[in-house]
Design brief:
single chain; 8 helices; mainly alpha
Length: about 190
């Protein structure tokens, strides 16, 4: 009574295909998008933070100079330190060593021309009487410089430092040789 098994119309057992990694399920796509978004956000945040680092460090040095002045009330030391800071910043930002050798009115005109695109009144320029304190202080009596003039000079220097552009790589200067500094007046070499 046993029927012949080979005569039955049966098919062989077919196993399902193995679980593939591709295409990904929706949850994996969302997780991948989240990782990419977090990575891009971190990179943009670091770029944005580094753009202002140079200016923040310059302002930190500036505030230290002002704090030393308020402690000692030494006008000559203040003007020397501010002038050196402005020269260091000019050379660092604009890659022009000629600005370090400028003196007198040419130096003040250079400082004014750097941020000439910023609108500011004539009284808040380095070529005004406040800026001339930078070049005349070593030759003047300490008592001849008023505290209001010193405070205006400090404000002027702080605005100049705050208006500095982000620090660029030195490579950019060589890649773009047409980038010129603003004209500095008749004392330019």
């Amino acid at each position: 009574m046993n029927p012949d098994i080979s005569a039955l119309p049966l098919r062989d057992i077919h196993l399902p295909d193995g679980v593939s990694l591709w295409p990904l399920a929706l949850g994996w796509w969302l997780l991948l998008a989240l990782f990419i978004g977090v990575g891009v956000t971190i990179l943009l945040w670091r770029y944005w933070r580094n753009q202002g680092r140079f200016r923040r460090e310059a302002l930190t040095v500036f505030h230290k100079i002002v704090a030393d002045y308020k402690k000692d009330c030494n006008t000559l030391e203040l003007t020397n330190q501010l002038s050196m800071l402005l020269r260091r910043l000019s050379v660092s930002v604009y890659f022009d060593l000629q600005c370090a050798s400028l003196t007198g009115n040419a130096w003040l005109q250079f400082l004014d021309d750097i941020h000439a695109h910023k609108t500011k009144p004539q009284s808040m320029r380095f070529s005004s009487s406040y800026g001339e304190i930078l070049i005349n202080a070593p030759y003047r009596n300490r008592q001849s410089i008023s505290q209001d003039d010193i405070q205006s000079l400090i404000t002027l220097c702080q605005r100049w430092i705050s208006a500095l552009p982000p620090l660029q790589n030195k490579i950019d200067q060589h890649q773009y040789p047409y980038r010129q500094l603003p004209p500095m007046g008749r004392d330019t070499c």
